[in-house]
Specification:
The protein contains four helices and four strands, in the order H-H-E-H-E-E-E-H. With about 200 residues, the chain is α+β, with helices and mostly antiparallel strands.
Length: about 200
Amino acid sequence: MNGFDKIKQRILEDAQQEAERIIQSAEEKAREIKEAKANEAGKLKKRLTEQNMEAAREHKRRMLVSAQLEMKKKVLAAKRDMIEAVFRGVIERISGMADDQYREVIASMLLNAPLQGDEEVVFSVYDQYRLDQGFLDYVNEQLKKQGRKGQLRLAPDRGQFKAGFVLRGHEVEINSSFEAIVRALRIEMEPQVAEMLFGELA
């Protein structure tokens, strides 16, 4: 083998060795990359699992909080309805009194009202048959005994409230309907009513 052939042979051998080295290096690199990716994938999976668990826990917590809020709203609404029923029931019971008892209550209210005695009185449409001018004539007699004018007169119109009356006169209107009275009393009495119903202050 001449020198030229020896050089060729050497080149081929070196190339073969370099190729094997490159292949080995590439295989090692591939293994390293595979292992790194496997580790990374494992870490990512673990992280995702932890994140999913945390997200699931957070979702559950939010659902519980939402359910608790909804429950509180419903309980509160039920309590409000019960309190409303109490105050509405007062009006119903008063307006449902026997006629003589009811007239006695209204007469007492008129006699104790800050009136001069010549006002116009608006009664409820529901009291059309038990509160009339004849009833006012009786009240006027009592007013005269108190030293007042005793000239109350029945208004031509009737009020759309459940019970009680409205006084008109001297550029002033006094709403003594039971709805208005209960509304005014409710501000003061609702906490007491709530305590009686639920053992707590509203």
